[in-house]
Prior knowledge:
The complex is a heterodimer of chains A (255) and B (263).
Chain A: E1 6-17, E2 20-31, E3 35-39, H1 46-54, E4 61-66, E5 72-75, H2 89-94, H3 101-110, H4 126-139, E6 144-147, H5 156-173, E7 176-181, H6 184-187, E8 193-198, E9 200-205, H7 207-212, H8 214-226, E10 237-239, E11 245-247
Helix pairs in contact in A: 3-4
Chain B: H1 3-28, H2 32-52, H3 56-77, H4 82-103, H5 111-116, H6 124-153, H7 155-160, H8 165-187, H9 192-204, H10 210-235, H11 239-256
Amino acid sequence: MKSHHDLVRLEQVNLHFGRNHVLQNIDMALHKGCITTLIGPNGAGKTTLVKVVLGLTKPSSGNVWREKGLRIGYMPQKLHVDKTFPLTVQRFLQTTQCKDKSLMLEALSDVGAETLLKESIHNLSGGEMQRVLLARALLRDPNLLVLDEPVQGVDINGQLELYALIARIRDQRNCGVLMISHDLHLVMSSTDHVICMNHHICCSGHPEQVSADPSFVDLFGAKGAEQIALYSHHHNHKHNAHGDVIEECCEHNHG
Amino acid sequence: MADFLILALLGGLGVAAIAGPLGSFVVWRRMAYFGDTLAHSALLGVSLGFLFDINLNLAVIACCVLLALTLVSLQRQHLVATDTLLGIMAHSSLSLGLVAIALIDDIRVDLMAYLFGDLLAVTPEDLYWIYGGGILVAVLLHKLWEPLLAITINEELAQVEGVPVTAVRLSLMLLIAVIIAVAMKIVGILLITSLLIIPAAAARRLSKTPEQMAIGAGVLGCTAIALGLALSYQWDTPAGPSVVVVAMLEFLLIYSWPQRQAA
């Protein structure tokens, strides 16, 4: 982490949907100039946690603190614009209240999509759409970028490129970044802090640390973890189907 | 040209011009059935107006607005699916209106005029209502334009960026309620939704931005009013349905045109 200027802090955040305990005792902080990546299996509550950070969902208990005057640039997981809604990239970018065409072109060229300005939103490929969404988030000159699976629908090369781009944006603007990802091995080189979650935070830290953590191995299976892990050890708790921790005897065998 | 034709034309153009932009939102946000439900409830407004002897325009606006508010609060409770809820409310309010009208025995109500519109009977007083309501809606729509587009693109994105989503969504419903109330005189309860959605749907094919579609819908709607009235005058066909038929022909014409690179 480059600095400890906090942008958002979550303290003991819990969220229930009926009997479903989606978020359990989440403590986390997002820092300026730091890329934090949330990983975890499907249904682990990653998107829900992001929504709590964004203020879209209120936690059942716990505190959410945001820095005064925090400007969030949000890139949703998927943006489905109804076919009946005519929208060009330019008009879409204008919905940020930005009327300056040169600023729009600048944001688009930052993400390598400057040729798309006049294109219809409906004709974009998955990767192009992600880039346009990112450009739109940048136009708001955010202190915090929140990206929900930014590489969805993008091929592997494009994914690496997008992650590198996000890291470059962080370097240039020194903003905080929170993103959700499925695959640690692709994000690894371009993230500072990883939070591995399955309703609760299983482990967190530098990517190397996390990839070696038993709870990470447990969540993603030994095979998946081996691709990145330098070493692994057994795990001190297991998850049941709801992701709750089943306490077992602790056996930490660092191998 | 006869006076009644000029009044009809002015009334129709006023309604169609504002129905274009609002109708675009009805198309984008898939609110056609919602519009229909509001329109059906307008008849209840009419009969309540007669019953309590209040201004009919006011009674209809009040009834539509009340129904929109009820709908929003019922929708939140997730009792039944929204389309079921709309169906229940549409036909219950229409039936309630018809029953109430039948119970008022000292007044003979021309039901056909309310169901299918009576464009040729537009009075100068109606014009005040149409233009008063129309200008009010136009001003509010202009003010809310960007937030409305934002919630239409993506409500969560809009909320993160500080748009008061619930308030904006409710405002749109109320604007539609007002325009349906004043448009009832023109094409009637059963055909109002067509004036909202057919010109907008036709304009979609010709537009690359939401503004082009909104304005295009207004222009196509006004054209339909003018041609529909001419048709009605020439061949003595009912005015409201004639307008809708012209709008439909516009739609067919535009969509049968060979497609260029679509936006």
